[in-house]
Amino acid sequence: MHKLLGVFILVWFSLQVNAQDSLAVVSDTVKTHSWKRAALFSAVIPGSGQIYNHIAMPKGKKKAYWKVPLIYAGLGATTYFVIKNNMLKNDFRSEYESRKIGNAPSNFLEYDDQSLLTLYTTHRNKRDFALLGLGLVYILNIVDAAVEAHFVNFDISEDLSLSIHPTMYNSSSYGVSFQFKFR
């Protein structure tokens, strides 16, 4: 009977140790919030990295989702200007080429050939700048998601402070002193 009780206690104890070990393994496998994942999400679907950061933020600090409409507004506006300027550029080019082969002016009667070339160049440059803006908005979306991912678990304590005071070093030189306090 004592042996059976001893075996029972030994089995029960080993189950408890295994349960604690498995809990330790589970807590060790919990991943920290990844800035790489946030950047990848934003690269694949713009704004999804901001949503990923918003979900991971502690309660009360959630504020990353409001950037998503701004991202899509920026992408939409720059895409609109790329398409609009590209269509105008193509219209001016086709009108110019049509006039060069001897056809009568059809669409842009008020412009001569030199004006068409100038308008073509102007809208080509506007299209190129809009493409640059589109790329910039896209890259800023990714950078914002990656940077904000670093701040998901960042704690700013009230024990940190910065004091800025005017300082007189001697009778003729003045300056500014910065004082950092870490408590």
Describe this protein with a few key phrases.
2 strands, 183 residues, 11% strand, mainly alpha
Q: In words, what does this structure look like?
A:
- This protein is mainly alpha-helical and 183 residues long.
- The chain has a domain at 32-154.
- The protein is built from five helices and two strands, in the order αααααββ.
- A two-stranded antiparallel ribbon has the order 1-2.
- The longest helix has 38 residues, at 113-150.
- It is elongated.
- Mean pLDDT is 82; it is low at 4-13 and 15-30.
Radius of gyration: 32 Å
Span between N and C termini? Answer: 61 Å
Q: Mean pLDDT, nearest integer?
A: 82
Structural class: mainly alpha
Following the backbone from N to C, one meets helices and strands in this order, namely HHHHHEE
- Count the DSSP helices: 5
C-alpha geometry: elongated
Strand content: 5-15%
Helix content: 55-70%
Could you give the count of β-strands?
Answer: 2
Question: In which order are the strands of the major sheet placed?
Answer: 1-2
Reported for the largest beta sheet, the result is: 2 strands, antiparallel
Show unreliable segments: 4-13, 15-30
Can you give me a brief rundown of this structure?
The chain is mainly alpha-helical and 183 residues long. It has helices at 2-29, 35-44, 48-56, 67-100, 113-150, and strands at 160-170, 173-182. 16% of the residues are buried.
